[in-house]
Amino acid sequence: MHAVDIAASVLVLGIIVVSLLSNVVVLICFLYNPEIRKQVPGLFILNLTFCNLLLSVSNMPLTLAGLITKGHPGGSGLCQIVGFLDTFLTTNSMLSMAALSIDRWVAVVFPLSYHSRIRHRDAVIALGYTWIHSLCFSTVATCRSWVGYHHLYASCTLCNVRANGAGTQFIIFTVVLHSLTFLLTLIVLCVTYLKVLKVARFHCKRIDVITMQTLVLLVDIHPSVRQKCLDEQKRRRQRATKKISTFIGTFVVCFTPYIITRIVELFCPGPISPHWGVLSKCLAYSKAASDPFVYSLLRHQYRKTCSHLANKVLKRSPLNSSSRRVENSAGRSDTNSTANTNTNTNTQPPVNKPSIP
């Protein structure tokens, strides 16, 4: 193996480990915390986590095997199944991100009527559409035998080499697939999150006006306190921009190189470097590893749940149990000594004071 292949294999292995661990933690938090299960976004996050986990245990290991063996991993039937899953899971995860962005837009723009606009029934309908949408494209590609092992990406996916005699149909199918998944999701993400950012900045500006009016009235306020208030205003504005940039930026960085490579492959007869093809596929895989942090684990509710679970596990360890027993025995000895002191004090004979005539 060349140094580039070794680096690519290590990269894929790292993505598999991080994706499995992070998505399993999200799934545990969802199952453990009833408040997360009651929320509508929890259904979209659960669906996204399911897609990422299945992608991590089916497609990524075969790509790693293809990089190591420099050939077709497994049989043709297995590659057909994995190619079906590649199209289905990628499409499903993209549409789940679009559904999450719409949910956040409704929650921010219509906060008072959010619970009447977005209900669990609406979330189930949206998820049903994402599954039907994904199943349609993946089933058509599998039935037309357009999925197989692609040496450019070292993975089982859509393969134009297998589209013998149906080149035009394969081109139309691929363009429609990426237009109704990647492009549609990108447009939804940009429109919804930019509107959310606009509303967030408007509220920040109102808070800033009230803060400045308060600072003007408090003429005796210390300059350091005034500076802290101004710094907090700046951090509040930057926080909203960073969150929106993370949502859109991770989607663009992870999926755009792979989609552009697929489109260029259709219309340009020239060869494409296999190293670039594998790198673009690794970037697409890395979205499964970054989604738990972008949508779940960095939120306060998930962090609190993880902290509670960690404390619960640590308290059950033998070391902490023995330390608790020592603390309890020490507490009981202190209590007994205090009780004995009080008893001795109460049993002392009374002192007769001389009476004053």
Describe the protein.
Helix content is 82%, strand content 2%. It is mainly α and 357 residues long. A hairpin with a 4-residue loop joins strand 1 and strand 2. The radius of gyration is 30 Å and the shape is globular. Residues 342-357 have low confidence and may be disordered.
Q: How are the strands of the largest sheet arranged?
A: 1-2
Tell me the span between the first and last alpha carbons: 112 Å
Mean residue pLDDT: 82
Low-confidence stretches: 342-357
Order of helices and strands: HHHHHHEEHHHHH
Q: Work out the number of β strands.
A: 2
Question: Helix amount, in percent?
Answer: over 70%
Strand residue percentage: under 5%
The helix-and-strand class reads mainly alpha
Number of discrete helical segments: 11
Shape: globular
Topology:
Blueprint lengths: L2 H30 L1 H5 L1 H30 L6 H34 L4 H4 L2 H24 L3 E4 L4 E4 L8 H51 L5 H45 L6 H24 L2 H16 L2 H30 L10
Antiparallel strand pairs: 1-2
Helix pairs in contact: 1-3, 1-9, 3-4, 3-6, 3-9, 4-6, 4-7, 7-8, 8-9
Short synopsis of the structure:
This protein is mainly α. It has helices spanning about 5-30, 35-40, 40-70, 75-110, 115, 120-145, 165-215, 225-265, 275-295, 300-315, 320-345; strands at about 145-150, 155-160. The protein has a two-stranded antiparallel sheet.
List keywords for this structure.
two-stranded antiparallel ribbon; 357 residues; 82% helix; single chain; globular
